[in-house]
């Protein structure tokens, strides 16, 4: 006979599936969407490389490139990314669906983690939803990112941790402990931020052993010592490898720059503001404090004071390292980080908030976790319609309503921009043949031209590309002199661009002068100048002569967030006046 707990768990999984996949569906992320030029261009580049070099060859090259040129230590994420490209190829909808399923599994594993710790269904659901739903939900639809897979692996590690603590068999306890350690290490290999959560995992397991077996702190530490030593050694080894072996990341918006309290405090304010769990935490403290104080207003408080100390220490050990790590980039999008969606950096820091909220509701119970041995405890051991559960239900309902609307708004905006880009890319394919020349005017200060090159060449077989660089300060009245000054390998070295990007930019060729433009050319203006996006201003900047005006008069424009593309449409006019 199927227990009521398993039935409830099945309904919870169905609810989480409908919630997350439903958000992707209603927002339009599972319909006519295309690639984002940032990050998603890697899908097209890697797909072509896999076809030429094979899976293993591409994986080896990609690992070497990311470590040597980008100074990133994320091997598991890179393996996962190349595997995704190998399996899903260039089907963006399948990519989005897969990202959503990772979110579903992560939420469900977090729910099972809480259930294994003897929390009731409502508390466990609240924990999963508080952790997964919010600004950090960008991982549901953003394709190339390490936080999604890292958080899922971490949730599996937490589940095995809980089962190792509450297992009645020494053999299964050992198996669960090994799996907990393996998955914790795997999470640390998916993103650098998950390395910093390993000490918190050690403390969490010690605390769970302490409260489940009613052992002393010393006995709990000794019981957890082998696994703790492994995780701490791995944490230290990975940090040393990054510090002295790999070095500081080449991304200008990220990286550790030492203790500076101003950006750290700013990051803290952003963390609280962005995830709203700061308000939920305050509401939880307000709701549970009277119950906790009433429960512990006796000598029993002294015996249970450890229940208060460990959750606070665990919260600090999870959140503070993340604040230090992201003090430079922050958690809210800025002009420098808009394209990377820093809201995803809330993982795994947000886990500290949601877990503390969960523990506060546990402390408000009339009985201890240890006494909750009945697997149907939310139906028997703990009456569901208690004041605490009713208050938790309304807090969860309010949070779910507000966050669902907010997440759907963000997801819809993301899908709409992706849909516009998809139409933009396909319009290029429809109006050009593979052999047609496409002239791309771009701002040398960013990497969008390289990203566009990857997508057009590998995704749409448009390889006859002419790149015209610009720093946004010199008019293009004489392209030849500008190219001599601003383009070429020497410029790239001065700009300290990464070696792999230099190699790609070095293959980009410009025109000798504007007189080489043809009526049948297709022009792409790729946000060529800072603050200069209006097509009239752009055309005045690049095409001020009579000849160019004739060209543009016969062109049709298609705009997107990247800039706009201009196509030749009037085939009856073939002569272009010369200056």
From TrEMBL:
The keyword Zinc does not apply. The chain crosses the membrane at residues 7-25, 93-113, 125-143, 149-166, 178-208, 220-241, 277-294, 306-325, 345-364, 385-402. Keywords: Membrane, Transmembrane, Transmembrane helix. It comes from Oceanicoccus sagamiensis. This is Glycosyltransferase RgtA/B/C/D-like domain-containing protein.
């Amino acid at each position: 006979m199927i227990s009521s707990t398993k039935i409830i768990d099945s309904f919870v999984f169905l609810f989480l599936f409908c919630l997350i996949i439903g958000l992707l569906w209603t927002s339009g992320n599972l319909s006519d969407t295309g690639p984002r030029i940032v990050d998603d261009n890697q899908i097209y580049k890697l797909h072509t490389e896999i076809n030429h070099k094979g899976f293993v060859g591409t994986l080896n090259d990609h690992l070497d490139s990311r470590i040597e040129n980008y100074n990133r230590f994320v091997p598991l994420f890179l393996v996962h990314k190349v595997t995704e490209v190998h399996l899903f190829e260039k089907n963006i909808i399948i990519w989005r669906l897969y990202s959503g399923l990772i979110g579903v599994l992560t939420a469900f594993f977090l729910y099972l983690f809480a259930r294994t710790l003897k929390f009731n269904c409502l508390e466990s659901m609240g924990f999963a939803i508080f952790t997964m739903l919010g600004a950090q939900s960008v991982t549901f639809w953003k394709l190339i990112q390490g936080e999604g897979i890292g958080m899922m692996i971490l949730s599996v590690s937490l589940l095995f941790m809980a089962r190792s603590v509450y297992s009645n068999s020494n053999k299964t306890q050992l198996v669960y402990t090994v799996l907990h350690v393996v998955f914790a290490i795997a999470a640390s290999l998916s993103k650098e931020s998950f390395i910093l959560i390993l000490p918190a995992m050690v403390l969490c397991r010690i605390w769970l052993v302490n409260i489940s077996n009613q052992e002393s702190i010393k006995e709990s530490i000794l019981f957890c010592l082998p696994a703790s030593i492994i995780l701490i050694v791995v944490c230290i080894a990975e940090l040393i490898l990054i510090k002295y072996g790999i070095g500081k990341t080449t991304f200008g918006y990220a990286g550790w720059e030492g203790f500076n309290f101003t950006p750290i405090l700013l990051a803290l304010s952003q963390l609280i503001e962005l995830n709203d769990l700061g308000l939920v935490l305050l509401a939880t403290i307000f709701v549970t404090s009277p119950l906790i104080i009433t429960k512990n207003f006796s000598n029993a408080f002294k015996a249970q004071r450890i229940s208060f100390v460990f959750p606070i220490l665990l919260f600090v050990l999870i959140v503070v390292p993340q604040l230090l790590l992201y003090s430079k980039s922050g958690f809210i999008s800025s002009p420098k980080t808009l394209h990377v969606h820093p809201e995803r950096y809330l993982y795994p820091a947000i886990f500290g908030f949601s877990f503390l909220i969960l523990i506060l509701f546990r402390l408000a119970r009339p009985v201890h976790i240890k006494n909750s041995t009945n697997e149907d405890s939310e139906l028997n051991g703990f009456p569901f319609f208690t004041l605490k559960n009713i208050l938790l239900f309304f807090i969860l309902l309010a949070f779910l309503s507000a966050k669902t609307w907010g997440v759907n708004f963000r997801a819809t905006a993301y899908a709409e921009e992706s849909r516009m880009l998809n139409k933009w890319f396909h319009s290029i394919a429809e109006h050009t043949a593979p052999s047609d020349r496409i002239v791309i005017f771009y701002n040398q200060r960013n990497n969008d031209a390289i990203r566009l090159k990857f997508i057009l060449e590998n995704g749409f077989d448009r390889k006859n590309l002419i790149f015209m660089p610009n720093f946004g300060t010199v008019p293009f009245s004489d392209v030849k002199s500008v190219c001599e000054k601003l383009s070429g390998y020497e410029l790239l070295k001065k700009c300290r661009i990464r070696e792999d990007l230099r190699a790609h930019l070095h293959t980009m060729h410009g025109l000798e002068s504007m007189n080489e433009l043809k009526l049948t050319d297709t022009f792409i203006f790729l946000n060529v100048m800072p603050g200069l996006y209006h097509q009239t201003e752009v055309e005045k900047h690049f095409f001020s002569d009579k000849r160019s005006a004739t060209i543009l008069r016969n062109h049709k424009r298609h705009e997107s967030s990247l800039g706009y593309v201009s196509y030749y449409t009037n085939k009856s006019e073939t002569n272009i006046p010369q200056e």
